């Protein structure tokens, strides 16, 4: 067995060092190795104190998430942690880096906890649909009270070392060499003749566990995690620490965590986690291909997207030059960048000095030659093929071979754009999502000519920019926007049939979408969608009702939030949406012109008609090879379009409800509305009729994965 835990003695102090790169996950090997060390410590009797410390960049980062999909392993963790706590001498956890989940739980089982000032701590389990399951719900409230334990677990947000000391689960912040500081701490404890302080022996302060406190936490959980149960389950477990003895509390925690692991919420969230991690694995890309270094960037276009992308580079510490055609546009764009940073300072996310350093990395220019020494140039102008080709021809002549020439287009044929250059291998799509400095998704779109080196460079650049890259092939709308077509189509058709925008959006939000699609259209700008559809009219079916509702609002001068009136009415300076009877008059007038009958709609119908086309188009994307994996489609929609993570993403959800159910639903609406928009994808029909799942299909393909 690999020994990842090393034991040595410094006088009477046993130093247990774990080295399990890259992030010291508490996997089966670590648990077995620590168990052997504990057996020796129990047997030999040399130690009067012990230190638990990790090599590398972090203390234990958490439990082994790869075990989450298998049989429950929490009992192994609890047994190990209880054994540490039962040692007859004091064990000090010496921590650094990011101490998450099981990593914090093992520290809570130690008798003392010290850390470097830069250490951060969190119990993020509820975001994965589960709860801390290795004693965390019982030990933490014994150290800091039920109320603070509830706050930490429900927020799932990391806290720094200073906050940890204030809360009471960290004893001391140390500086310098962590091992040396831990030895000094342990020896000082011995010199004081201190007694072993076991967390399990502590009692919970009843004043921290009143009914009012628990109810307040429950209301917070309901607001923060609508439609989900894990946070409520965690509240149940933590509140139990105030009424149950420790061992009974552990048994109750075990019951609850095992129940949580079996929920769709947990399965979906864990699937989404793995799907996002898998996006950087590119089947067929030569592993020997090395990314070109990106040290300096250029951006063409100082609008909303260009400015947001510039912030991404500045936040990553890279100098970036933004070029625009006019002085006015450039000044306006840089001013908006400044306003974004000023907002971050006001909210405490940046210091004024940090803002100044980042702003200094962003240079504005009217001269394309300023981009000549860039390692990557991203074009972010409006959706005009002629304009983009003109820009790329200019970039081709100015930049050196090997410079990545990227377009932020959301729909245009990037292969056609690349024809304007003499080096199509350097051309790729980098589709950022708005606001670019916030949204974590980056669609990386390759043409048939894009080189492996360019693809690898784009994937690695995404890491530097803290984005999750999803590779796609060229097609209209790529992955996300292509799937959006059917989703938006049905929402607009439903309001054309008489439903109110509020009814449609509320049904979708109650189902789990972060924002209803009509509110999204208002936020993005109704004119943006109308212009795209008008420019690509040849790509849509000959249906006069297709996206007719937004066309009607646009014709009436309703552009969305930007002018205070779209599908909803907005007050100045407020994005809260208000129902507007004028909208209903406009849309119903258009329905009369088109001969669309008015009818009532249930929430179930609204969800099915909007979501089923989205799933069906995802099937087509997979059968055409536009996306590498079903999990890539899921990552696009959970990261970029507000699809509920706890449902796993569209493709995971399709498997959840059953492909036969999805096929039958589409056939039901085909019978009602005809085959123009309601035809099951060939892959869906094939899998549904053979009784297979997408997971089965994916497992049989090269690359497998999520």
Salient structural properties:
706 residues, alpha/beta, 2-enoyl-CoA Hydratase, Chain A, domain 1, N-(1-d-carboxylethyl)-l-norvaline Dehydrogenase, domain 2, 3 domains, six-stranded mixed sheet, 19 strands, globular
Could you explain how this protein is built, in words?
- The protein has 706 residues and is an alpha/beta fold.
- The protein folds into three domains: 5-262, 2-enoyl-CoA Hydratase, Chain A, domain 1 (Alpha-Beta Complex), CATH 3.90.226.10; 297-474, Rossmann fold; 481-699, N-(1-d-carboxylethyl)-l-norvaline Dehydrogenase, domain 2.
- The protein is 49% helix and 12% strand.
- The protein has 29 helices and 19 strands.
- The chain has an eight-stranded mixed beta sheet.
- It is globular.
- The model has no long low-confidence stretch (mean pLDDT 93).
């Amino acid at each position: 067995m690999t020994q990842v835990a090393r034991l040595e003695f410094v006088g009477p102090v046993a130093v247990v060092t774990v080295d399990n790169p890259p992030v010291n996950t508490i996997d089966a090997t670590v648990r077995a190795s620590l168990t052997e060390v504990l057996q020796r410590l129990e047997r030999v009797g040399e130690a009067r104190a012990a230190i638990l410390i990790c090599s590398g960049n972090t203390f234990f980062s958490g439990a082994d998430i790869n075990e989450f999909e298998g049989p429950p392993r929490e009992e192994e963790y609890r047994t190990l942690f209880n054994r540490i706590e039962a040692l007859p001498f004091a064990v000090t956890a010496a921590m650094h880096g990011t101490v998450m989940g099981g990593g914090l739980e093992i520290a809570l089982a130690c008798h003392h906890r010290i850390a470097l000032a830069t250490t951060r701590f969190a119990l993020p389990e509820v975001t994965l649909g589960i709860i801390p399951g290795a004693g965390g719900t019982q030990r933490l409230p014994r150290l800091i009270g039920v109320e603070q334990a509830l706050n930490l677990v429900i927020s799932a947000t990391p806290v720094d070392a200073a906050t940890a000391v204030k809360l009471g689960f960290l004893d001391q912040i140390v500086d310098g060499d962590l091992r040396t500081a831990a030895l000094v701490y342990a020896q000082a404890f011995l010199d004081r003749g201190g007694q072993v302080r076991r967390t399990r022996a502590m009692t919970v302060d009843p004043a921290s566990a009143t009914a009012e406190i628990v109810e307040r936490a429950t209301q917070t959980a309901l607001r923060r995690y609508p439609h989900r149960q894990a946070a409520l389950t965690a509240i149940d477990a933590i509140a139990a620490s105030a009424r149950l003895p420790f061992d009974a509390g552990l048994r109750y925690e075990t019951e609850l965590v095992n129940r949580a692991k079996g929920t769709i919420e947990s399965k979906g969230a864990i699937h989404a986690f793995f799907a996002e991690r898998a996006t950087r694995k590119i089947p067929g890309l030569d592993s020997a291909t090395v990314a070109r270094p990106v040290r300096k960037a250029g951006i063409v276009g100082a609008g909303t997207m260009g400015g947001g992308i510039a912030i991404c580079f500045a936040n990553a510490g890279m100098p970036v030059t933004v070029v625009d055609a006019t002085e006015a546009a450039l000044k306006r764009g840089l001013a908006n960048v400044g306003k974004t940073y000023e907002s971050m300072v006001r909210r405490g996310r940046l210091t004024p000095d940090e803002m100044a350093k980042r702003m200094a990395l962003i240079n504005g220019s009217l001269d394309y030659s300023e981009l000549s020494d860039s390692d990557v140039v991203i074009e972010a102008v409006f959706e005009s093929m002629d304009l983009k080709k003109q820009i790329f021809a200019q970039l081709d002549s100015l930049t050196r071979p090997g410079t990545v020439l990227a377009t932020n287009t959301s729909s245009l044929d990037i292969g056609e754009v690349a024809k304007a250059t003499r080096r199509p291998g350097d051309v790729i799509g980098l589709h950022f999502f708005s606001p670019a400095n916030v949204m974590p998704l980056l669609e990386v779109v390759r043409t048939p000519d894009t080189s492996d080196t360019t693809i690898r460079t784009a994937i690695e650049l995404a890491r530097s920019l803290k984005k999750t890259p999803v590779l796609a092939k060229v097609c209209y709308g790529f992955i996300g926007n292509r799937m959006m077509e059917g989703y938006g189509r049905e929402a607009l058709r439903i309001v054309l049939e008489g439903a109110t925008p509020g009814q449609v959006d509320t049904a979708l939000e109650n189902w789990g979408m972060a924002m209803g699609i009509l509110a999204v259209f208002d936020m993005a700008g109704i004119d943006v969608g109308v212009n795209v559809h008008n420019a690509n009219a040849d790509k849509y079916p000959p249906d006069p009702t297709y996206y007719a509702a937004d066309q009607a609002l646009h014709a009436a001068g309703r552009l969305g939030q930007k002018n205070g009136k779209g599908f909803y009415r907005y007050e100045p300076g407020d994005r809260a949406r208000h129902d507007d009877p004028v909208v209903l008059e406009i849309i119903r007038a258009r329905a009369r012109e088109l001969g669309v009958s008015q009818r009532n709609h249930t929430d179930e119908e609204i969800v099915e008609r909007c979501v089923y086309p989205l799933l069906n188009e995802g099937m087509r994307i997979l059968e055409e090879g536009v996306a590498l994996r079903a999990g890539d489609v899921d990552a696009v929609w959970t990261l970029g379009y507000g699809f509920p993570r706890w449902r796993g993403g569209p493709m995971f959800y399709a498997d959840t409800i059953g492909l036969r159910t999805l096929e039958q639903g589409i056939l039901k609406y085909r019978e009602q509305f005809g085959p123009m928009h309601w035809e099951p994808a060939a892959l869906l029909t094939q899998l549904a009729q053979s009784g297979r799942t997408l997971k089965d299909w994916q497992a049989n393909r090269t690359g497998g994965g999520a």
